[in-house]
């Protein structure tokens, strides 16, 4: 791998943990790992990311990190007073073989976990998988906190996957409009898009309360958005707590949003309200108005599997041709799904799971495209190849706003189309000779 299209597992675990109310993510490893993970999230979300570290030195690296973690749990509850500590491992503690459940049991036995507080964790070795795997592993660890219950409460668990805080807010808004009673976890809205109030709060008001997550076994069902980010947690709730689950695509674009809305409507036993139908109609109208500019345009995309699947379907639906598609996260079924979605297109499609941005760049050199969609690291390819470029995915380090403007749902679809059309027409305006440079496009 030359220029990875992924980053390391604990970053995903840290992001997921921040979606629990009053939670301090804890990195069980060396300080350098924790600093890297925090800074990556800070650069993307433009918010301070609080996280603690077991601060391994040579001794812990040889003899194991139990003493460091016990000391850390004691210090964290004494000094910062979180409701929850969500521990994730790193390459170092995984290689040593530290046993998190055994250390947590010892912490409880030694009475360093105060009454009513929670410590749990996920194994996130970064030498396999990607940040998406780490996110999934932490969400699965949350699901493992749930207990079976015979008293189903009519709630639906929604596991949103790795989407922006604004996307989580939008999913909750759509569910509320339909009248579905939901419990979303994790939920970073109100945490990583918190307002500037002039008063620093280490634990902003958002996030899912841990008691609600522990009660997820009482739900009547689970909607998991994204096979890679959310399915493992949903299946665990199914097997452990007998909460049936449906795995849907992330609701980016028209069709995936239709399926999400239909699932919510079915669960809630209601019909789709006019407000949502109007939003859908606006998206269909915009797709139709813009179609002349999109038709036949070739696109290269890099990102994470769940996002790429929904985006590919959306691009195909507006008659664009996603011809080069790369994710850094492993999984052959990703390639199969993309081939299914692009099967009707007239052109050859290059797709690679566990690929890298170097490969994507080579494909673009061999077969040029009209548009590039991906995270900030793609800007080097966009610059080299002089391509219109839409930033979308994780991480976006050189632009702002993504944490505030959703791209899920019908209104999110409007935003995606507007971003795509703007870069295409900006390019046309830049390149058109004087005689065809038009006021109205
Ligand atoms: S890859 Fe491993 S060692 Fe490197 S920052 Fe991530 S967890 Fe730490």
Fold and architecture overview:
- It contains 17 helices and 13 strands.
- The chain is of the alpha/beta class.
- It has three domains: 9-143, Rossmann fold; 156-274, Rossmann fold (3-Layer(aba) Sandwich); 286-434, Rossmann fold (3-Layer(aba) Sandwich).
- The longest helix has 23 residues, at 409-431.
- The structure holds iron/sulfur cluster.
- Iron/sulfur cluster (SF4) binds next to helix 2.
- Iron/sulfur cluster binds at residues 8, 10, 33, 36, 90-91, 126.
Short synopsis of the structure:
The model has no long low-confidence stretch (mean pLDDT 96). The chain is of the alpha/beta class. 47% of the residues lie in helices and 13% in strands.
Write the layout of secondary structure elements.
Elements: H1 9-17, E1 23-28, H2 31-45, E2 52-53, H3 58-63, H4 66-79, E3 84-89, H5 91-96, H6 100-109, E4 118-122, H7 131-143, E5 156-159, H8 165-178, E6 182-184, H9 210-214, E7 221-225, H10 227-241, E8 245-248, H11 254-268, H12 274-294, E9 298-303, H13 305-317, E10 321-327, H14 332-341, E11 350-353, H15 357-366, E12 371-374, H16 379-385, E13 389-391, H17 409-431
Parallel strand pairs: 1-2, 1-3, 3-4, 5-6, 5-7, 7-8, 9-10, 9-12, 10-11, 12-13
Helix pairs in contact: 1-2, 1-7, 4-6, 7-10, 12-17, 13-14
The structure holds iron/sulfur cluster (SF4).
Which keywords apply here?
single chain; 441 residues; alpha/beta; Rossmann fold; 3 domains; five-stranded parallel sheet; four-stranded parallel sheet; 13 strands; globular; binds iron/sulfur cluster
């Amino acid at each position: 791998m030359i220029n990875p299209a992924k980053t390391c597992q604990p970053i995903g675990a840290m992001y997921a943990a921040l979606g629990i109310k009053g939670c301090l993510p804890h990195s069980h490893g060396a300080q350098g790992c924790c600093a890297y993970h925090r800074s990556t999230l800070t650069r993307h979300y433009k918010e301070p990311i609080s996280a603690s570290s077991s601060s391994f030195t040579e001794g812990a690296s040889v003899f194991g990190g139990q003493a460091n973690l016990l000391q850390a749990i004691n210090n964290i509850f004494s000094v910062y007073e979180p409701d929850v500590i969500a521990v994730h491992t790193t390459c170092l503690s995984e290689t040593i073989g530290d046993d998190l459940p055994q250390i947590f049991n010892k912490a409880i036995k030694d009475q360093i976990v105060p009454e009513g507080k929670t410590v749990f964790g996920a194994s996130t070795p970064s030498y396999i998988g990607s940040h998406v795997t780490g996110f999934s592993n932490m969400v699965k660890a949350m699901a493992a906190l749930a207990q079976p219950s015979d008293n189903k409460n009519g709630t639906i668990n929604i596991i949103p996957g790795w989407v922006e805080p604004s996307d989580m807010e939008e999913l909750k808004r759509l569910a509320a409009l339909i009248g579905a009673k939901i419990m979303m976890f994790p939920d970073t809205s109100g945490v990583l898009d918190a307002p500037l109030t002039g008063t620093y709060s280490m634990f902003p008001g958002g996030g899912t309360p841990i008691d609600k997550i522990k009660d997820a076994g009482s739900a009547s069902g689970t909607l998991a958005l994204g096979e890679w980010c959310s399915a493992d947690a949903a299946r665990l709730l199914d097997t452990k707590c007998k909460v049936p689950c449906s795995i849907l695509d992330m609701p980016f674009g028209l069709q995936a949003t239709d399926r999400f809305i239909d699932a919510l409507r079915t669960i809630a036993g209601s019909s789709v309200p006019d407000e949502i139908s109007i939003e859908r109609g606006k998206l269909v109208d915009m797709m139709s108005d813009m179609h002349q500019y999109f038709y036949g345009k070739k696109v290269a995309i890099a990102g994470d599997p769940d996002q790429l699947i929904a985006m590919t379907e959306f691009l195909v639906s507006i008659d664009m041709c996603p011809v080069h598609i790369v994710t850094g996260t492993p999984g052959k079924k990703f390639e199969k799904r993309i081939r299914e979605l692009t099967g009707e297109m007239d052109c050859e499609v290059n797709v690679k799971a566990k690929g890298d941005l170097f490969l994507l760049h080579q494909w673009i050199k061999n077969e040029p495209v009209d548009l590039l969609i991906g995270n900030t690291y793609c800007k080097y390819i966009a610059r080299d190849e002089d391509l219109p470029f839409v930033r979308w995915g994780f991480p976006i380090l050189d632009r702002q706003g993504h944490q505030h403007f959703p791209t899920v749902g019908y209104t999110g679809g409007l935003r995606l189309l507007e971003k795509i059309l703007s870069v295409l027409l900006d390019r046309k305006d830049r390149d058109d000779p004087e005689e065809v440079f038009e006021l109205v496009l």
